[in-house]
Amino acid sequence: MALGIGATFMVLEFAIAFATSSLATLSDATHMLTDVVGLSMALGAIMLAKRSAPTYTRTYGYYRAEVLAALANAVLLFAVAGYVLYEAISRIGEPPEVAGFPVLIAGIAGLGANIASFLLLRSGAKESLNIRGAYLEVLADLIGSVGVLLSAVITLTVGWLYADMIIGVAIGLWVLPRTYILARRSLRILFQHSPEGLDVELVSSTLQALPGVEDVHDLHVWTLTSGMEVASAHLTTAAGANADEVLRSAQEVLANDYHIEHATLQIEGMDSAKRCNELSW
């Protein structure tokens, strides 16, 4: 329902933006477009991931579809921000007259749509990272709608032609930091970097401190998709150590201390560990 509300009022804002030459309304409409596209891609990615279980050829299924959708959304956001800035630069010196009343209607409509979507997504944001992302996007859109309202009020009361352009640029720039964060997080996952905020060196030290563990090597920790961290490691055990107990202790530490539920651990003796040192990577 939140997707339908956003799409409806996005069309309304685009119509008013082109009819009035309002850059503030156009900026907010394009921002809402990215939200609609982002929600659609995230929804499609979730459905694809659920319907396409892992197979022998796709051992992780389509979990990464969500990450690719997020990266595509970030690219779209960058393009939108660039377009708004380009339009603003082209209007310097000769700002067009903007009809304040239609822009005011667009601002009120956009604000109402964002409030409705905000209320619809609020409860689900506590359970799903995808929905929480959409929830935060809608929250940010509220600021854009307030900006459009402010632009309309200034135009109607003072008649300052630059107000619409300045607020339009401000809304466009508001998108950029969140876009950068979204793109960075997506690329970290796609490049299989360690999860943000996780000290892998500390994880290694914790595992090596377990009773019976002599050495930890080939430790890898990465994110499969949002909220799904995965780890693999080789644990070299001391002579006489119980391999089952070492394995159980390591899995418990990873799950309880670092919230890594899916860990593939190989227990090996000193002789087996020598072969790992011979590998080139």
UniProtKB/TrEMBL annotation:
Compartment(s) of residence: Membrane
Keyword Transport in record: yes
GO MF annotations, alphabetized: zinc ion transmembrane transporter activity
Residue intervals of the Cation efflux protein transmembrane domain: 5-190
Keywords, ordered alphabetically: Ion transport, Membrane, Transmembrane, Transmembrane helix, Transport
Cellular component per GO, a single term: plasma membrane
Transmembrane feature ranges: 29-49, 61-86, 98-121, 133-154, 160-181
Membrane topology summary: Multi-pass membrane protein
Pfam families in the record: Cation_efflux, ZT_dimer
Matches recorded under InterPro entries: Cation_efflux, Cation_efflux_CTD, Cation_efflux_CTD_sf, Cation_efflux_TM, Cation_efflux_TMD_sf, CDF/SLC30A
PANTHER family according to UniProt: CATION EFFLUX PROTEIN/ ZINC TRANSPORTER (PTHR11562), RE54080P-RELATED (PTHR11562:SF17)
Family: Belongs to the cation diffusion facilitator (CDF) transporter (TC 2.A.4) family. SLC30A subfamily.
Name of the molecule in the record: Cation transporter
Source organism: Antrihabitans stalagmiti
Lineage summary: Bacteria, Bacillati, Actinomycetota, Actinomycetes, Mycobacteriales
